[in-house]
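Why do we care about 3D structure at all? Because function follows from shape, and shape follows, mostly, from sequence. That is the central idea of this module. The next example makes it concrete: a single protein chain, its amino acid sequence, and then its structure expressed as tokens.
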Amino acid sequence: MGQLRLLLASGTIFALAACATANRPNFEAMSEDELFLYNQERPVMQRVYCFVGFHTSSRIRRKNCMTVADYVNANQQAADTLQVTQPAGAGLPRARGF
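And the structure:
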């Protein structure tokens, strides 16, 4: 009886987990036409764009998809990281006499 309850409980947990992750479409598997139709219904910052790139640890190209808002946030974080690592007062050299 205890094993049946455990099996039923684990099956319920797996089913709920599958339902929770099924809400987000698989953008990597969508064609360009499907992405175009999906993006037509979205505001600009929620539109999804995909690009193919290399990962540093692999030669295999991988399709990456993200919303415009995620892309902007990632670029802002990268810029913030560069600002933190740059010493104070260090910038582009100025031309003298101009």
